[in-house]
Amino acid sequence: MCSHPKTCASYLLGHFYYFSTMWLIILVLAIITRIALGANRYSRFYEKNHGNILENSSSLRFSNRHFTCSLPHHVSRHASIWWFFKAVQ
Questions:
Q1: What pLDDT does 32 receive?
Q2: Would residue 11 count as lying in a domain?
């Protein structure tokens, strides 16, 4: 595959950094969108049922709890996809 070990290592490292940066950006964007969408959804729900959202902090607690509970599942799903791609390549 590689005639020069040094170039091979730098090539692999370059690919690793490229992919890890790409996945990091995707993950950050996904988390931001999820928080934004979740905040909108929960605030609308609580404004409709409980009046002003600022007077009721339980909605924020609920959305945080929901987010932290669903996060490990989300990450494990991405990790399995990542390992699948690595196996295919």
A1: 80
A2: no
Question: For residue 46, is it within any domain?
Answer: yes
Classify residue 14: in a domain, yes or no.
no
Which residue, chain included where needed, has tokens 């609920």? 62
Question: Rounded CA gap, 80 and 88, in Å?
Answer: 12
**Max Cα separation, the chain?**
69
Q: pLDDT tens-digit profile of 18-50?
A: 677 778 888 888 888 777 766 655 555 555 555
Predicted TM-score (pTM) of the model is: 0.30
The answer to whether position 40 is within a domain reads yes
Provide the number of structural domains found in the chain: 1
